[in-house]
Amino acid sequence: MATLFEDQAPRPLADRLRPDNLDAVVGQDHLLRDDGPLSPERDGGRLASMVLWGPPGCGKTTIARLLATESALIFEPLSAVFSGVADLRKVFDRARERRELGQGTLLFVDEIHRFNRAQQDGFLPFVEDGTVILVGATTENPSFELNGALLSRCQVFVLRRLDDQALEQLLTRAESTLNEALPLTQDGRRALREMADGDGRYVLNLAEDLFLQPPDVKLDAAALAERLQRRVPLYDKAQESHFNLISALHKSLRGSDPDAALYWLARMLAAGEDPLYVARRLVRFATEDIGLADPQALVHAIASRDAYHFLGSPEGELALAQCVVYLAVAPKSNAVYRAYGAAQRDARTMGSLMPPKHILNAPTGLMKELGYGADYQYDHDTSEGFSGQNYFPDRIARKSYYTPAERGFEREVAKRLSYWQRLRSRSNDSER
Predict the structure, then answer these.
(1) Which neighbouring-strand residues pair with 78?
(2) Smallest Cα–Cα separation from 262: which of 270, 271, 254, 252?
(3) How far, in Å, CA of 320 to CA of 219, rounded?
(4) For a disulfide at 372, which of 11, 174, 309, 362, Cβ 3.0-4.6 Å?
């Protein structure tokens, strides 16, 4: 219970505006409204252990606190950053005592992914027997960060970053509570919401600073940018956002959308991604998704890497952007990628088959006596520069791994392969 002095202490605007019921939570209608899975009317208000997964400032703590209130449970908050096994034991002891008196406990663990595997296992018996209703909050993908045993006992609910409408609702609520309008033009108001990047707590913190402005000041987007620090886009180079954005870039390139690809490139670089990591992915894309449909794609990708090495940031980033556009508009083919995969499978499963003797060198007399190099035809000595001999091991039939696509340069490759196949067939017919 708060003391008299605590009630008089200053509180951040975001804390003062915390909703006092689930209907007042913004931006999470898919979970809380109508027949949503966390709607108070659903399942008679019965609560099960859960994990709330979402970005910062989307309402995870608020929802957990209100769920405890709605379900008449004692709210026990913990942060995995500041708590250890001893803290957990104390919570479980208190929850066990309450349970004996018929009172339930909602244990809210913020940043639950920061507990190690052994600590996560410690929750299992208390969740299993209902001593606590566990509500874990995380900004990281639970399937990567939480034990499978713990996940199997919890429902996972995905909270969304707050959209523009939800952020505007928060700003309007702040103005109503303080009975004061934000000193912003419409353009400045829009820029403020963009700066928040979907974080409700952050937009209210920014607003609290702006309420200190003289009332006759009206900031537009440019003036706001000078006064406030723009929020760095959410991005962790070791976690899911890193893989999400590189996947988005890769698939935009594959989908031949240079505009989307440029956007994802800019997002990654603005968030501090290593440009050489991006360059490596572009090289990979050039070989995996374009291949011989445009042999210059790999040349461009290597050149963009070298240009960045030479120029550094920010000038070298333009070389990466140029490469992204080139790769996006290039014809696509994964024929070489699939062909090599098929060849790898055969190489692993068919054992250590020897090459046919006629294509082996015979540097010693013994090897010549054994037939090494016998009947080999030197292709340049034939009339078409093509002998049509077999180069596969004798014990397996000729394989066809590579089938060029009917796109870009591979059309020319297909013509050459067709020509050589005709010569090969003619050679085989003559031998019969």
Answers:
(1) 109
(2) 252
(3) 36
(4) 362
H-helix segments, 330-409 = 335-349, 365-369
pLDDT tens-digit profile of 76-127? Answer: 999 888 888 888 889 999 999 999 898 999 999 999 988 888 888 888 999 9
What would the two tokens of residue 282 be? Answer: 């572009």
Q: Which amino acid is at 35?
A: D
Tokens 């011989």 -> residue: 292
Give tens-digit pLDDT for 337-369. 999 999 999 888 887 888 888 888 888 888 888
Cα-based distances in Å from 431 to 97, 338, 373, 424, 428? 92, 33, 19, 11, 5
Identify which of 231, 90, 241, 67 has the alpha carbon closest to the alpha carbon of residue 155: 67
Structure confidence by residue, pLDDT tens digits, 58-68: 999 999 999 99
Scan for tokens 């959308």, then name that residue. Answer: 257
CA separation for the pair 323, 286 (Å, rounded):
10
Which residue stretches of 158-239 are H helix? Answer: 164-178, 186-196, 200-210, 221-227
Token pair, residue 268, equals 């990654």
Distance CA 190, CA 14 (A): 19
Tokens representing 283? 């090289």
**Dihedrals φ, ψ of 355, to 5°?**
-65, 155
At position 304, the amino acid (one-letter code) is S
Q: How far apart are CA 258 and CA 271, in angstroms?
A: 20
Which 3 state secondary structure label does DSSP give 233?
Answer: coil
How far CA 163 is from CA of 11, 147, 234, in Å, comes to 25, 31, 15
Q: Parallel, antiparallel, or unpaired for β 105-110 and 50-53?
A: unpaired
State both tokens at 203. Answer: 């937009």
Given pLDDT bands bounded at 50, 70 and 90, which one contains residue 1?
very low
243-247: long-range pairs with CB below 8 Å, 24+: 245/271, 245/273, 246/278, 246/281
| H or E element in which residue 287 lies | none
Q: What is the pTM of this model?
A: 0.63
